[in-house]
Amino acid sequence: MRLSRYFLPILKENPKEAEIVSHRLMLRAGMIKQQSAGIYTWLPLGKRVLDKVNAIIREEQNRSGAVELLMPTLQSAELWQESGRYDAYGKEMLRIKDRQDRPMLYGPTNEEMITDVFRSFVKSYKDLPLNLYHIQLKFRDEIRPRFGTMRSREFLMKDAYSFDLNREGAEHAYNRMFAAYLRTFSRLGLRAIPMRADTGPIGGNLSHEFIILAETGESEVFCHKDFVDFDIPPADSDFNDVAEMRGIFEQWTSRYAATSEMHDEAAFNAIPETDRLSARGIEVGHIFYFGTKYSEAMGAKVQGPDGKEHIVHMGSYGIGPTRLVPAIIEASHDENGIIWPKSVAPFEAVIINMKAGDAACDAACEKIYGEVAKAGVDVLYDDTDERAGAKFATADLIGAPVQIIAGPRSVANGEVEVKDRKTGERETMTVEAAIARVATAN
């Protein structure tokens, strides 16, 4: 992508409304634009990051055995009346009526609708286990939306829903998703700690929030410090192996970790003082096992191997992609801007032409741009006539992992400078070596 043809509305000044660094940097880097309180347009740069986050989430959901579908954002109130949650959910639910005066709602979550889908088509235990997921916009009318897309009213959610014949199967589904979440967050460059958590309006009696430690986090958390270094399940994990999945779950839950709602002071104090960690954190995922809460209320049952009808056991599993993007920024930035992990960087490399219009600089940059793009690298070519300082500031702000800098003096020697955005280290090398370094790293 050539910057001269791209839509990148950079802000030079820090926006006054931004309270935390991720909100400030997302606005300054031209990733988002606020349309109204808690509602944002994702601009091209932000959309590229969001798409890469979603791709990793999809890969790990599919790896775990979940199957993707897509449910509508508008839901009939009748389904929520069946489950008993329509009146109980509270003012966060946006309630509306259609032209026929039928009560509708903009879905804050999808337990009722997925249960309706399940009961319409699944009748036998032979079709279990089943886990269905989608990535869809949700709306919760937060009383105080803040921190940009970290706590917005309209947000993107990956929500998955498992269906099993009994509790034993449901716990295996829970453990599978537990392992999938650990892998997902690790691939996004995050160390997310699973914490025992309150089930809230979703219901049930087993729940974990996945928290990344950050001073700007809204959650107060308490855990054993060893969580910082635990192993992540490998790509070849067998998600169908009950013992392997239980082992991963027990490895992580054998040490104390809880949100403030579930905090047990006595249990925490039993940990050696040097091993205690109390901090603030950002919730990036939440998983629940709630048994037959929805299936019993809505008649979701199957014929079991004994010929009798069984109410299915369910769980739900959420990840917020539009919250993950600022969470990654909170975890990875410096005073100059964002430092993206390669896996979700909007562009893996930025080519900076220090003297656009100079024949030698143009030729070198065009050669690099063409070759690395041909190798499948997402590359941004700054071919504008901006000052060198402004180009460097933009490249640092948007956070591409690698910068390739071509100036008249270095190009005259057949060389360019390559900068690592994270470390700041610079290395002079030939044009061919720079191409090889970026292209082979893809």
* C-alpha Rg (nearest Å): 24 Å
Q: Tell me what portion of residues adopts beta-strand conformation.
A: 25-35%
- What oligomeric state best describes the polypeptide chains here? single chain
Q: Quick one: CATH class of the largest domain?
A: Alpha Beta
Major sheet characteristics: 9 strands, mixed
**N-to-C span:** 17 Å
Structural class: alpha+beta
CATH topology of the largest domain: BirA Bifunctional Protein, domain 2
Total number of strands: 23
- Which CATH-level-2 architecture of the largest domain? 2-Layer Sandwich
Give the rounded overall mean pLDDT. Answer: 95
Number of domains: 2
Number of helices in the DSSP assignment: 13
Q: Give unreliable regions as ranges.
A: none
Helical content band = 25-40%
CATH superfamily of the largest domain: Bira Bifunctional Protein, Domain 2
Give the overall silhouette.
elongated
Quick overview of this protein structure:
This protein is an alpha+beta fold and about 450 residues long. It has helices at about 20-30, 45-65, 75-85, 110-120, 165-185, 240-255, 265-270, 295-300, 320-330, 360-375, 390-400, 410, 430-440; strands spanning about 30-35, 40, 65-70, 75, 95, 105, 130-140, 155-165, 195, 205-215, 220-225, 255-260, 275-290, 300-305, 310, 315-320, 335, 335-340, 350-355, 380, 400-405, 415-420, 425-430. Helix content is about 35%, strand content about 30%.
Topology, element by element:
Elements: H1 21-28, E1 32-36, E2 39-42, H2 44-64, E3 67-68, E4 74-76, H3 77-83, E5 94-97, E6 103-106, H4 111-121, E7 130-139, E8 154-164, H5 167-187, E9 193-196, E10 206-213, E11 219-224, H6 242-253, E12 257-259, H7 265-269, E13 276-291, H8 293-298, E14 301-303, E15 309-311, E16 313-319, H9 321-331, E17 333-334, E18 337-338, E19 349-353, H10 359-374, E20 379-382, H11 388-398, E21 402-406, H12 408-412, E22 415-420, E23 426-430, H13 431-440
Parallel strand pairs: 3-7, 19-20, 19-21
Antiparallel strand pairs: 1-2, 4-6, 5-6, 7-8, 8-16, 9-10, 10-13, 11-12, 11-13, 13-16, 14-15, 17-18, 21-22, 22-23
